[in-house]
Amino acid sequence: MSESRQHNLAIQTNTLNVNKYSEPGQDEYSTNSTNDQQTSTPTKLIKDKELKKNKITVSRNYLLMDKVELEKNGIIGWKLNLAMLLRSKAYDLLMIILIVLYTILIFIYFAFADTYFSDESNQVVFYIIELSILGIFCVEIGLHLIAFKSLYLKDFWNIFDLFIIILSLTFVLLDIFVENSVLDGILKIRGIFRLLRVFLLVRKLNTLRVKRQIQLRQLTANGYDLRSPLERVLEILNGLRDQLDIEETKIIQDLNYCIKVISSNQLYEANLDFDGQLENTKDRNEVQMLLQNYSKVANENQEQKKQRRMSKSPTIGGLNHWDDSKFQITNDKIDEMLVLNEQAKAELENLQKLEFNIFKIQDYTQQNELITVTSYILAQQNIFQTIQLQYKTFRNFISKVQSGYKDVTYHNKTHAADLSQTFYYFSHTQGLKEKCNIDDVEFFSLIVAGACHDHEHAGYNNVYLVETQDTLALRYNDVSVLENHHVASSFAIMQEPGMNILAHLSKEQYKRSRAVMIGSILGTDMSKHFSELGKFKTRVGSQEFDPSGTDKDLTLTMLFHLADISNSTKPWDICQKWIDLLFIEFFHQGDLERNRGSPISYLMDRLTVNIAKAQIGFLDVIIAPSYQAANLVIPIPSNLSNIENNKATWQTKFDEYEDQMNRDKERFKLTALKL
Ligand SMILES: [Zn+2]
C-alpha cells in the first residue's frame, strides 16, 4: 500500500471519528496525549488539519484529566478530592438512581395528569418530589462548579443544563404559587413544561452516556486501540488509585510505587533501593556494587589491546585424521574419530553428570576438550545423523572455533566446552529437553552456541573494551560488544570453505538455528542478568508459563546463561579451580587499568579484593536467586546444594585469600619502590 493511500485512509478514519464524536452531548473533540505520542507526525498533521476543517477545537475535557492534570489546572486540596468524587463510579450510580426515579415520576405524572393529578393536593405531593430532585440536580451543578471551576463552564452543554434546570425550577415554582388562570393567561405553560421535563430527562441520560463514551474514546482516540498493554495496565492502576479513599494511604502508596516502576520502563531491573533490607552498610554497598555491575552496559583501548596476549592456536595433535568419505558419525564410531585414551573415555562416561570434570578432559585429550566434548555430545544424541550433518564439516568448523579461543586463563576453549557440557546436563539429565520440547536442530544449535559463546575473548570485559574505545566497541556501538563479536566471528567461520555446518538445513531450520545461537550467546551478557532474570521469574511465576511455547526462548536463554555462570554450582574442587582462573584474568585487567591510571573495574583490584569474600556476595546475589528460579522449571537440587556447600567452604577460606591479597600488596609495594 502506497504511503499516500495510507494517509488518505488516515484522513477518512479521522473524519469519521470526528463526526462520530462531535455529536451534541459533551465536550469538543478531545485528544489523548498518550495516543498522540504514538501517532506519526505526518498523520498527526493531517489529523490536525482535518480537525480545523471540521471547526472542532482540540481541547481536553475535564472528565479526561487525571489528578496531576487537574492539579495543574489549579484544582487542589479538598476541591481535588471533591472533583475525584464527582467522577467516581459511586457518584455515577447515585445519578443513575436519581434519573431513573425522575423518569418513573415523569411517566406516572404524564399518565395520570388529567385524572389523579388533577386533584390539587395530589399535584402538590408530586411537585414536592420533583422540586427535591431538581434541587439535587442544582446542588450537583453547584458541586461541579466548585470542584472543576471554570473547566466546567468551558463546556457549552453544562451551561445549557444549568439553564434548563433553572427554567424547570422556575416553572414548578410558578405552577405551585401562581394561580392557574393567571398562568394560562401568560403562557401555554403546561405543554411547554411537559416538553421541558422530557428534554431534561434526555439531557441527563445523555450526560451519563457521553461520560461513558468519553471514557471509551480515551481508549480509542483514533478509532483503533493503539495503546500497549502496559499503557492499559497503567490506566487501570491510575483509575484504581483515583477511586480510593484518601485515607487508604498504604494502598495508595503501593499503587503509586507500581505506577512509578511500570512507567520507569525498568520493570525487570534489580532493586537498587534497599531501604530496610540490609542493616550493615558494608554489605549494602557490596550488594549494590554487584547489582550495578550486572545491570548496566559495561566497556578497551587501542593501547591495551596491543598489550593483550596474542592467541595461540592449540595443537590438534591428539586427534585422529577423519575419514574423508561422506561419513555421518554415530555414537559407536565417535571413538574411532577421536583418539581418546582410556582416562578420557572414563571421564566422558560422566558427560551427562554435574560432576563431569572438564579439566581432566583438557589434560587427557591434549588440549582438545572443546572438539572432544561437542563431538561426543552430538554423537551421543545421534545429531549428525538426525540433522544429516557430515562430521567432516563439523570437525572443520569446531577445530577452527577451538583455535580461535585465546590463551587466557578463564574465557577460553575449556570454559566454552564447560558451558556446552553443563547445558547438556540441564537438557538431557535434568529434563530441560522435554520441558522445553527442544528439537534436534535447536539442541545442535545450543551445543554449538556453547562452543562459540566466548569465541576470541581476549580476557577483558565489555566495560574495558568500551572504556578503551576498542575497535570491537566501536563496531558494536558499545552494546554487548563481546557477545556480538562471539556470534559474528563464529558465523564468519561458517562462510569459509568446508565449514558451513548449517548449509544442509532447510531455510526454516537455518533461521531457527541462527536465532537460537544469536539469542543464547547475546543472553550471556552479564549486564542483562537482572533484567532477564526478572522477566524469567515473572513468567515462571505466572499461570500461563509455557516453557515449550511462548516462554521457550526465554527459558532456553536463561538456562544457557546459567550454564555459563555454573562454576559455583559444581563440586568444590572444580568450583575453586574455575574461580581462581577467573580471578587471574580479572586481576590482569585490573593491573592494566591501574597502570593506565584509570578506575579499576569492580572485583578486579588484586590489592583490595578478597576472592573468598567476593564469592559469598556473588553466590548470594547472582547465583543462588537465579538457580532457585531455574529450579522451578527443572529440578536442579544438586546445583543448589553445591551452592550452599561452596558458600560454606568459601567462608573457611577468608584468611587464605586475605593472605594472597596481602602478598600481592607487598609485591606491589616492592615493584613501586623499584620504579
Ligand atoms: Zn562464558
Automatic annotation (TrEMBL):
<dbReference type="Pfam" id="PF00233">
    <property type="entry name" value="PDEase_I"/>
</dbReference>
<keyword id="KW-0472">Membrane</keyword>
<dbReference type="InterPro" id="IPR036971">
    <property type="entry name" value="PDEase_catalytic_dom_sf"/>
</dbReference>
<feature type="binding site">
    <location>
        <position position="615"/>
    </location>
    <ligand>
        <name>AMP</name>
    </ligand>
</feature>
<dbReference type="GO" id="GO:0005216">
    <property type="term" value="F:monoatomic ion channel activity"/>
</dbReference>
<feature type="transmembrane region" description="Helical">
    <location>
        <begin position="124"/>
        <end position="147"/>
    </location>
</feature>
<feature type="compositionally biased region" description="Low complexity">
    <location>
        <begin position="30"/>
        <end position="44"/>
    </location>
</feature>
<dbReference type="InterPro" id="IPR023088">
    <property type="entry name" value="PDEase"/>
</dbReference>
<feature type="transmembrane region" description="Helical">
    <location>
        <begin position="159"/>
        <end position="178"/>
    </location>
</feature>
<feature type="region of interest" description="Disordered">
    <location>
        <begin position="19"/>
        <end position="44"/>
    </location>
</feature>
<keyword id="KW-1133">Transmembrane helix</keyword>
<feature type="binding site">
    <location>
        <position position="415"/>
    </location>
    <ligand>
        <name>Zn(2+) 1</name>
    </ligand>
</feature>
<keyword id="KW-0175">Coiled coil</keyword>
<keyword id="KW-0812">Transmembrane</keyword>
<feature type="active site" description="Proton donor">
    <location>
        <position position="411"/>
    </location>
</feature>
<feature type="binding site">
    <location>
        <position position="454"/>
    </location>
    <ligand>
        <name>AMP</name>
    </ligand>
</feature>
<feature type="binding site">
    <location>
        <position position="564"/>
    </location>
    <ligand>
        <name>Zn(2+) 1</name>
    </ligand>
</feature>
<dbReference type="Pfam" id="PF00520">
    <property type="entry name" value="Ion_trans"/>
</dbReference>
<keyword id="KW-0378">Hydrolase</keyword>
<dbReference type="GO" id="GO:0046872">
    <property type="term" value="F:metal ion binding"/>
</dbReference>
<feature type="binding site">
    <location>
        <begin position="411"/>
        <end position="415"/>
    </location>
    <ligand>
        <name>AMP</name>
    </ligand>
</feature>
<feature type="binding site">
    <location>
        <position position="564"/>
    </location>
    <ligand>
        <name>AMP</name>
    </ligand>
</feature>
<feature type="domain" description="PDEase">
    <location>
        <begin position="336"/>
        <end position="657"/>
    </location>
</feature>
<feature type="transmembrane region" description="Helical">
    <location>
        <begin position="93"/>
        <end position="112"/>
    </location>
</feature>
<dbReference type="GO" id="GO:0016020">
    <property type="term" value="C:membrane"/>
</dbReference>
<keyword id="KW-0479">Metal-binding</keyword>
<feature type="region of interest" description="Disordered">
    <location>
        <begin position="300"/>
        <end position="319"/>
    </location>
</feature>
<dbReference type="InterPro" id="IPR027359">
    <property type="entry name" value="Volt_channel_dom_sf"/>
</dbReference>
<dbReference type="GO" id="GO:0007165">
    <property type="term" value="P:signal transduction"/>
</dbReference>
<feature type="binding site">
    <location>
        <position position="454"/>
    </location>
    <ligand>
        <name>Zn(2+) 1</name>
    </ligand>
</feature>
<feature type="binding site">
    <location>
        <position position="453"/>
    </location>
    <ligand>
        <name>Zn(2+) 1</name>
    </ligand>
</feature>
<dbReference type="GO" id="GO:0004114">
    <property type="term" value="F:3',5'-cyclic-nucleotide phosphodiesterase activity"/>
</dbReference>
<feature type="coiled-coil region">
    <location>
        <begin position="640"/>
        <end position="667"/>
    </location>
</feature>
<protein>
    <submittedName>
        <fullName>3 5-cyclic nucleotide phosphodiesterase family protein</fullName>
    </submittedName>
</protein>
<feature type="binding site">
    <location>
        <position position="454"/>
    </location>
    <ligand>
        <name>Zn(2+) 2</name>
    </ligand>
</feature>
<dbReference type="InterPro" id="IPR005821">
    <property type="entry name" value="Ion_trans_dom"/>
</dbReference>
<dbReference type="InterPro" id="IPR002073">
    <property type="entry name" value="PDEase_catalytic_dom"/>
</dbReference>
